[in-house]
Task: structure prediction
Amino acid sequence: MNFDLSEAERIRYDRQIRIQNWGLEKQIKLKKSKVAVIGVGGLGSPISIYLAAAGVGKIILVDSEKFELSNLNRQIIASTCDLNRFKAEVAAEKLKKLNPEINVVFTTSLLNENSIEEVIGGCDVIVDALDNWSTRFLLNRFCVRKNIPLVHGGVTGWGGQTFTILPRRGPCLECVFKGVREVEGGFPVVGVTPGIIGVIEALEVIKLLTGLSKPLYDKMLVFDGFETSFEYVDIKRNLKCEVCGDG
Ligand SMILES: [Zn+2]
Result:
């Protein structure tokens, strides 16, 4: 594959290439990158749109569900005509229209211990855009084992949180959320909330891939949309963690 940038690509990405220290070099880094977005709903919509627009060379979309009418207050990659179609398939079509220069693949199969390596192995970054903790913890174990950065995001109601797991450099999901209780079935959520957390996750991916700035791995950003406030919460590695601990 040719990793030079065509004239059209140079124009498409011009406004970010001109960011200080970005240049053609970082843009080519993005083009060479492979990122998996796990979940193509409220978080996955803005994440995948911004990663495609930014020129991430290969995007893998993973979601086994189809769009339902009650998704549409927040899952902005879908139009009403997409109801009852697989989310990952719809999103892949839209991303390819947004940016034909990149490679987008999708799967509608469920992730489990046996399939995960085949589906998302070899990625540079994996993005948690999920709404359940059991799959999040599966991703966390995989990413720690493979030493792949995992960008976490979660929302409910008016708020949400995000941070990045850099395996063994900072806390993992198990260190921070061990014992968290699963919220069963369709929790309420203001549609904008996953938009806000999702775009921060996309920014985090771009930082990780380009090496520009510092990822958010030693504290967690917590957003309260009702109060319109952001705050940092200190998080620490548990050296006895069952997933990332030393012992
Ligand atoms: Zn841990």
